[in-house]
4-carboxymuconolactone decarboxylase (Secundilactobacillus collinoides), 105 residues
Amino acid sequence: MAKKQTAGRDNLGDFAPKFAELNDDVLFGEVWSREDKMSAHDRSLITVSSLLTQGVPQLEAHMKIAKQNGVTKDEMVELITHLSFYAGWPKAWSAFTLAKEIYKD
């Protein structure tokens, strides 16, 4: 079962309350919790892939979530290696830097 997400409310609740609600309750509450349709592990692989191709800061947070959702170091390395040819070498280098730190233990 997916962990209850509060990042939206914690970070934007006062500034953008509707966005925070949609983030926490719809995206993470309804979409991510549909584990009977797709596992959190697989959702994490897809999400990290998408964020890596975009080169956005949320990649780090989602790599950490991916690790919590059971994505192994070897799976993450393979994901980044595969995407390096599609998303670009510099994005792969940046992603490896994050992954190396996140999976250091």
In short: Residues 17-31 form the longest helix (15 residues).
